[in-house]
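Entry 14. Structure prediction run on the chain below.
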Amino acid sequence: MLGSGKVRDLYLVDDAHLLLVASDRISAYDWVLPTEIPDKGRVLTALSAWWFDQLSDVAPNHVVSVASPPVPSQVAGRAMLVRRLQMLPVECVARGYVAGSAVGPGLAEGDRLPEPVFTPTTKAAVGRHDEPMSFDDLVATVGGELAEALRERTLAVYAVAAQMAAGRGLILADTKLEFGISGDGSLVLADEVLTPDSSRYWSAADWSPGRQPASYDKQYVRDWLINESGWDRASGSPPPELPAHVVAGIRERYL
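Output returned:
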């Protein structure tokens, strides 16, 4: 194993390729929770594969294959064979609605923004917090030309995905993307894309300004941890096991 993240495990295939395996783990508030969600890895892989294909004209991606072979049968359905990239040390967030963080004065949670905004963050190690970055911070980290390309590509992906989600009765409130640089210097969309782990999806029929509707993502788990579990996020103690009804609820939302 080359590395293990909050949800995915990474294996070296050869100098040019990696095997990216999605587990059934779930994370919240920078913790990997002790309870797994059945079938979650398969759902994440299928959704990412579909979105990578849909967005291929907007953003070149790292996917080589999701089929077996060459993906080993033991992880078929949960794994992608991908190109090996030089991953950028930032996470690229596009927001179309106010959710989970303040974005400008005079706005309430759930409000639609006048136009989508690009809000990059650092990419912290497991157990540490991603920190917001200004655009100047991003320029200092990756350079001006690449920073502009990241902003343009992130907002382009969001625009296309938000329109497609709207056609299915969903609001894509925000999404987080990761990019890498290929051997020829191209900017490549990588990791996962537009899954319930990396994005907030709301029911369009239930939305009204200033109100967050029911979500189809891991916000359900976040809400249970903060409001019902008795866990103190500031304590430094790990979160508790998820009860069966929460596991069933989040699984239903992902499926």
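Residues 87-205 form a domain with the D-amino Acid Aminotransferase; Chain A, domain 1 fold (CATH 3.30.470.20).
Filed with the rest of this week's runs.
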